[in-house]
């Protein structure tokens, strides 16, 4: 895999000179190191630490927020069952509410605020 990565990095450098589209280039850089990122996650390293390492060795050129967004997109592409729409579809629908009906004000026990005082009770 090292040879393929080296060839891919060389192609990215060449492509970056010809293609001014930054988003496409950064996404391609991310995909080139996606296996390294996954290996780091599996080893227990945080995404922040992985991002710092990859930017220091010049394998990616993006800020941390973009890195997180791309990581989220990559995970969704790898496992479409994790997408929010699929998660909502898999959740069982709750049956009709079985809560007892709310008590009216007169049925409630304890203190009940009444803005109009009952003069018979006050005297």
The tally of helices reads 7
Query: What's the rounded overall pLDDT mean?
Result: 77
The helix content, as a percent range, equals 55-70%
Strand tally: 0
Largest sheet: none
What structural category do the secondary elements indicate? Answer: mainly alpha
Q: Spans of 5+ residues with little confidence (pLDDT < 50)? A: none
Radius of gyration: 29 Å
Summarize the helix and strand pattern as letters: HHHHHHH
Roughly what fraction of the amino acids lie in strands? under 5%
Distance between the termini: 92 Å
Describe the global form.
Answer: rod-shaped
Description:
This protein is an all-alpha fold. It has a domain at 2-80. Helix content is 59%, strand content 0%. Helix 1 (2-18) packs antiparallel against helix 2. The model has no long low-confidence stretch (mean pLDDT 77).
């Amino acid at each position: 895999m090292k040879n393929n990565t080296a060839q891919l990095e060389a192609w990215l450098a060449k492509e970056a000179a010809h293609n001014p589209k930054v988003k496409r280039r950064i996404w391609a850089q991310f995909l080139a190191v996606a296996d390294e990122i996954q290996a780091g996650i599996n080893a227990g390293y945080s995404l922040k630490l992985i991002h710092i390492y990859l930017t220091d060795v010049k394998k990616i050129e993006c800020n941390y927020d973009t890195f997180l967004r791309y990581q989220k997109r990559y995970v969704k592409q790898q496992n479409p069952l994790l997408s929010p729409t699929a998660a909502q579809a898999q959740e069982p629908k709750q049956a009709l509410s079985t809560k007892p009906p709310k008590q009216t004000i007169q049925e409630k026990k304890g203190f009940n605020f009444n803005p109009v005082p009952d003069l018979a009770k006050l005297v």
